[in-house]
Design a protein that fits this description.
A hairpin with a 4-residue loop joins strand 7 and strand 8. It contains 10 helices and 8 strands. By secondary structure, it is of the alpha+beta class. Helix content is 60%, strand content 15%. The chain folds into 3 domains: 8-111, no CATH class; 149-247, SH3 type barrels (Roll); 251-335, Alpha-Beta Plaits (2-Layer Sandwich), CATH 3.30.70.100. The chain has helices spanning 3-38, 42-67, 75-111, 120-150, 153-165, 167-176, 178-193, 235-238, 265-279, 310-331; strands at residues 201-204, 207-214, 218-223, 228-232, 242-243, 251-259, 287-294, 299-307. Helix 3 (75-111) runs antiparallel to helix 4 (120-150). The strands form 2 sheets. It has a 5-stranded antiparallel β-sheet with strand order 4-3-2-1-5. The protein has a 3-stranded antiparallel β-sheet with strand order 6-8-7, covered by helices on one side.
Length: 348
């Protein structure tokens, strides 16, 4: 048999064996994830959802990495193919690392649901996990790009030369990236010290709302009227702000009512207690009614009440304000604010 036919047959068998190995690797990966999907474990469900796609890329790349050196091809072709496989493997591993960070977020959310009433611990863990995940994604991307560039000898040589001689350029780049770096460092500090957490009730720039999202460089505050206030992460380290749920999820709400001096305060206090008991929103921890100010025209009554969370506290305050005003209108209409005047007799 001629030599070129033997070489052709050898290459054909090698390609067939390589194709068979790739098919077997893909089928094995699919069967593994199909078996994991049949289980009722939260961990397996999250792994299947997030890691199926990157593992489908890693399985054939692993086969190619092992099989390419054994292929009867010229060295130039084999080296180029191996380089492409290494680049793909680095990218796939980085992709898998990012997806694994999503698995950790899912497990934390399943173990500590933020939707619970007393969700202080859950919000703390969710905030830390999400911030650390975003920082990990940035680090994984940086390491992956660095490793991919280091596989090119010419680029690696140029990079070493630049690092050795371009101090001024590095200083300029650092100054340009200062806002990004400050926000990333602020994210680490927020994750550790917890001045804010997800679903915290805050007042920022005079706006009252909830912490809806904590990103890598910014925070989204959901205002009570459904607007969104986007604030840099560093703002919460460098500027004062109000956090109403810093220590606990429950809140104290206040309602101010202005009345005439003739109002029977004890009757209004008793009515407040009845309103709170009948509302179904009061948690029973604290309540009270006090005269907090007295002007030349009116008394200022402050009704104090506690609620299990911020949303309930807002609804309870509105309910109490409405019921107290209705009580005064029905029982003591003469105790509502009024303007007094003295008329002197006009001369004839």
């Amino acid at each position: 048999m001629p030599q070129f036919l033997l070489a052709l047959r050898s290459e054909s068998w090698s390609l067939a064996a390589l194709a068979a190995a790739l098919v077997i690797a893909v089928i094995a990966q699919q069967m593994l994830f199909a078996a994991a999907a049949r289980t009722h474990s939260a961990l397996n469900a999250s792994l299947v959802r997030h890691c199926r796609a990157p593992s489908a890329l890693l399985a054939p790349l692993a086969v190619l990495f092992v099989a390419l050196p054994e292929m009867p091809w010229p060295a130039e072709i084999t080296d180029s193919a191996q380089h492409l496989v290494v680049l793909g493997a680095i990218a796939a591993l980085a992709w898998l690392g990012v997806r694994l960070s999503n698995v950790l977020v899912d497990l934390a959310a399943a173990r500590y649901p933020v939707g619970a009433k007393d969700n202080l611990r859950a919000r703390r863990i969710a905030t830390q996990v999400q911030l650390l995940r975003r920082i990990a994604v940035v680090l994984i991307a940086f390491v992956a790009i660095s490793l991919m560039l280091m596989t090119f000898p010419s680029i690696r040589h140029v990079g070493i030369t630049l690092f050795a001689s371009a101090g001024v350029a590095g200083l300029v780049a650092g100054m340009a990236a200062r806002p990004l770096l400050s926000n990333l460092l602020a994210g680490v500090q927020i994750a550790l010290t917890e001045p804010i957490r997800l679903d915290d009730v805050v007042i920022v720039e005079g706006e009252w709302g909830w912490i809806e999202e904590i990103g890598t460089t910014y925070v989204v505050v959901r205002i009570w009227d459904l607007r969104r206030l986007v604030v840099p992460l560093a703002y919460f380290i460098e500027h004062p702000f109000q956090n109403w749920t810093r220590a606990t999820a429950d809140l104290l709400g206040t309602v101010f009512v202005y009345t005439d001096y003739t109002v029977p305060v004890e009757e209004v206090r008793a009515e407040l207690h009845r309103i709170l008991q009948a509302s179904g929103m009061w948690d029973g921890k604290a309540w009270g009614l006090q005269v907090t100010d007295a002007t030349e025209h009116t008394l200022q009554l402050r009704a104090l009440m506690s609620a299990p969370d911020s949303g309930t506290a807002w609804d309870l305050r509105c309910h109490v304000r409405e019921k107290l005003v209705a009580f005064l209108q029905e029982r003591y209409p003469r105790s509502l604010p009024r303007a007094r005047a003295e008329l002197s007799q006009l001369p004839a």
